[in-house]
């Protein structure tokens, strides 16, 4: 349990930040699933459009250090290769 005023405030901030980061991670997973679903549907043009939006979202979350930059790169690489294999 936090004993000082500073520690109590940091605990409150940590709860808020955890909720925000959790929602960002959820949005990341949703974006990745959207690309996978579009690839499975077989429509390359739609998949490419969704892929571009997802890459933007992945980069944004990596820039905020919610996920590691290498993890972001790995997701983008795997999605890009899946999209390329669709041709």
Automatic annotation (TrEMBL):
Domain of life: Bacteria
A single Gene Ontology CC term: cytosol
One Pfam family recorded for the sequence: Ribosomal_S20p
A GO BP annotation: translation
Residue ranges, annotated region (Disordered): 1-27
GO MF annotation, one: small ribosomal subunit rRNA binding
Keyword annotations from UniProtKB, A to Z: Ribonucleoprotein, Ribosomal protein, RNA-binding, rRNA-binding
Transmembrane segments: none
Family listed: Belongs to the bacterial ribosomal protein bS20 family.
Known function: Binds directly to 16S ribosomal RNA.
This protein's name: Small ribosomal subunit protein bS20
Gene (UniProt): rpsT
């Amino acid at each position: 349990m936090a004993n000082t005023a500073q520690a109590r405030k940091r605990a409150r901030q940590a709860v808020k930040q955890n909720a925000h980061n959790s929602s960002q991670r959820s949005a990341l997973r949703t974006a990745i699933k959207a690309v996978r679903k579009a690839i499975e549907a077989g429509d390359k043009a739609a998949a490419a459009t969704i892929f571009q939006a997802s890459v933007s979202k992945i980069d944004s979350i990596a820039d905020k250090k919610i996920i590691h930059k290498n993890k972001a790169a790995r997701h983008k690489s795997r999605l890009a290769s899946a999209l390329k294999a669709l041709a």
